[in-house]
Specification:
The structure is a single chain. By secondary structure, this protein is α/β, with parallel strands linked by helices. It has 17 helices and eleven strands. It has helices at 2-9, 19-62, 65-70, 72-75, 78-97, 100-111, 115-122, 144-151, 175-181, 204-211, 224-238, 245-249, 263-266, 270-277, 291-296, 298-308, 356-377; strands at 128-129, 134-138, 157-159, 184-185, 190-194, 216-221, 250-252, 257-258, 286-290, 320-323, 328-331. The strands form four sheets. The protein has a five-stranded parallel β-sheet with strand order 3-5-2-6-9. Strands 1-4 form a two-stranded antiparallel sheet. Strands 7-8 form a two-stranded antiparallel sheet. Strand 10 (320-323) and strand 11 form a beta hairpin. Helix 5 (78-97) packs antiparallel against helix 6 and helix 14 packs parallel to helix 17. It is elongated, with a radius of gyration of 36 Å. The N and C termini lie far apart (104 Å). Residues 1-14 and 41-124 have low confidence and may be disordered.
């Protein structure tokens, strides 16, 4: 265009200057314009970066945290800022030269550099990791998983989903390691975890008390005979070659001598374990959930748990329905899901059939332990 304009306006047909000279002059002028454009762009990019950095430093000096948060540039690390500016430069230079394919290639290469760092700076983390305010400490096969899953739908509860086994197996790793496992919580929220084996671990009460004297404890108890059968059924599903329930439960079945060294039997001697806990905690710090009523009246049991934790009663009847296939209550379908929330396949498993005579012998064995337990906690669970 420039060539044709100059040819028609400046140079008449009779001009002595050759058209070749005009062509060279036009190309040279175009090249100079392109160089000037590139230098101008690089000059505007760097001052912008320096201006942003200066503004960040200035805002830091005046201590205005809110203003810093409004500037996306200030939230990036130095490396991330460089990447951001390089991306901007690639876009401007590519638009000037018209080389769109080069822009896409260079941008993709920059995306691979410290991509995680940039994502992390843009992802806010709310709350802090704190040591638990409350623990579900027992008992195995009593219904602890159900209590955890039900109570964690409360907006003021954040709970660790897995069992950390800190106070029985991993205590040597220290409280910092334990705290690091916890979910982030706000000041108004309660941090919880559950490990049912704590209740029967001799050292657990002292260790938890050393962490905090004010920790609230939840114990889910169940008819010790039913609990022992459920425990055995779970073990049998993993190891089909174990001896029968009767062989493991009795030292001498003919005279009814129960083998209290078998863990499935010993766990159900609740009063023995509770006496150990009461050396370090007040009875008012321990809440006992009925495993039987948890099935027949989950809302009622969860209502009492919420009261014990000092929470508003938000979890009610409207959150539950009874799953007849599993024989267990499930949480109704939340708005964010297409299906209701039920416990895993291992929950509600059909128990091994035990001879009625064996059950009667175990009932006689557990009766004195149960009666002392009822008296201690001030509640008759009616297991006899």
């Amino acid at each position: 265009m420039a060539y044709r304009f100059l040819s028609s306006r400046i140079v008449p047909s009779s001009n002595r200057l050759s058209r070749r000279f005009i062509f060279i002059f036009t190309v040279t002028l175009s090249f100079m314009y392109l160089c000037y454009s590139i230098l101008f762009c690089s000059g505007t990019i760097m001052p912008n970066q320096r201006l942003e950095e200066h503004r960040c430093v200035h805002l830091k000096n005046i201590g205005s945290k809110k203003l810093l948060q409004k500037s996306h540039y200030c939230t990036l690390s130095t490396k991330a800022r460089v990447i951001s500016e390089e991306r901007r430069a690639v876009g401007l230079l590519s638009n000037l030269t018209g080389n769109q394919s080069k822009q896409n290639t260079q941008a993709r290469n920059l995306d691979t550099v410290d991509h995680k760092q940039i994502n992390n700076t843009n992802s806010p983390k709310y709350g802090n990791k704190k040591l638990p305010n409350a623990l579900i400490v027992g008992v195995k096969k009593g219904g602890t998983r159900a209590v955890l899953e039900f109570i964690r739908i409360h907006p003021d509860v954040r709970a660790l989903g897995t069992e950390p086994h800190f106070f029985d197996r991993n205590y040597d790793k220290g409280l910092d390691w334990y705290r690091g496992l916890m979910p982030r919580t706000l000041d108004s929220q309660i941090t919880m975890e559950k490990t049912p084996s704590y209740f029967v671990t001799r050292e657990a009460p002292r260790r938890i008390s050393n962490m905090s004297h004010e920790t609230k404890l939840i114990v889910v108890v169940r008819n010790p005979i039913t609990r022992a059968i459920s425990d055995y059924t779970q073990t049998l599903s993993k190891n089909p070659d174990i001896p029968s329930f009767e062989e493991l439960a009795f030292k001498n079945k003919s005279v009814g001598i129960v083998d209290t060294s078998w863990n499935a039997i010993r766990i159900g001697m609740y009063i023995l374990h509770l006496e150990n806990w009461l050396q370090f905690f007040r009875l008012s710090q321990i809440h006992f959930v009925s495993g039987e009523r948890l099935i027949t009246d989950p809302a009622g049991e969860l209502g009492r748990v919420q009261d014990f934790l000092g929470l508003k009663r938000i979890i009610t009847d409207k959150h539950f329905y009874f799953n007849r296939t599993k024989g267990f209550p499930c949480l109704k379908k939340p708005e964010s899901s297409s299906q209701p929330r039920c416990l895993g396949k291992s929950k509600g498993r059909t128990h091994v059939q035990i001879d009625q005579e064996v059950i009667e012998q175990l009932r006689e064995f557990y009766r004195p332990f149960n009666e002392k337990f009822y008296e201690m906690v001030g509640h008759d669970f009616r297991w006899d």
